[in-house]
Amino acid sequence: LAKTTQPISMDSYEGQEVNITCSHNNIATNDYITWYQQFPSQGPRFIIQGYKTKVTNEVASLFIPADRKSSTLSLPRVSLSDTAVYYCLVAPTGGFKTIFGAGTRLFVKA
Amino acid sequence: SAVISQKPSRDICQRGTSLTIQCQVDSQVTMMFWYRQQPGQSLTLIATANQGSEATYESGFVIDKFPISRPNLTFSTLTVSNMSPEDSSIYLCSVGLGHENTEAFFGQGTRLTVV
């Protein structure tokens, strides 16, 4: 499974757009990129998944360049409730054995 | 999607004893996994719970310490045996639905404190 690297922590203010970048230089052809969000005392929750280009849902956008060696999770207009740990994972299709990296702790301030 | 119920949600146990954690899913699922999350840390995969056969353990985890059962496609248990304070952690059950994507669903976790 490809290793991922992301910033340990980030700070933001309410209403701002937050972009968290993940590096995955060894991504394989059949790997998907998935992001999870974890609040304290809860299990991780799926946010978004993509293979290439851009994916958008009601929560976030995921930007993946052509070489797929990195990806950027974009959270529009964050609120205090977006304070959480965000994990970037890379795994092949059907590869549910999900290996977590260190994650990025996002702190949203008022 | 899948709804996962874990029991107990938390427990305080004496060292040397064992605790069995239950994971119940509201639908049949292909894959079930058990994770450990120590305070302030990321999740570490303990093992894959295989239906009808022995679990597959990750490096650093052994069956004698973390025996796992999976009698059917909706239920699994993880036992933490002969506990020590170092086993104090959150234990999480996770499932995959067997579709083409890799989305996983997680339970709320069991917070274990060993005293």
Describe this structure in words.
- The complex is a heterodimer of chains A (110) and B (115).
- With 110 residues, chain A is mainly β.
- Helix content of chain A is 0%, strand content 49%.
- In chain A, the strands form two sheets. In chain A, strands 1-9-8-3-4 form a five-stranded mixed β-sheet, with no helix packed on it.
- Chain A is globular, with a radius of gyration of 13 Å.
- The termini of chain A are far apart.
- Chain B is mainly beta.
- In chain B, the strands form two sheets. In chain B, strands 2, 4, 5, 6, 9, 10 and 11 form a seven-stranded mixed β-sheet that branches.
- Chain B starts with a strand and ends with a strand.
- The chains are: A mainly beta (110), B mainly beta (115).
- Label the overall shape of chain B: globular
- How many distinct helices of chain A? 0
How many angstroms does the end-to-end distance of chain A come to?
38 Å
Q: What is the succession of H and E elements of chain B?
A: EEEEEEEEEEE
Distance between the termini of chain B: 37 Å
Low-confidence stretches of chain A: none
What is the CA-based Rg of chain B, rounded? 13 Å
The protein's oligomeric status is heterodimer
Largest interface: A-B, 25 and 26 residues
Low-confidence stretches of chain B: none
Rounded average pLDDT of chain A: 92
Mean pLDDT rating of chain B: 93
Largest sheet of chain B: 7 strands, mixed
As laid out across the biggest beta sheet of chain A, the strand order is: 1-9-8-3-4
Compressed to H and E, one letter per element, the order of chain A equals EEEEEEEEE
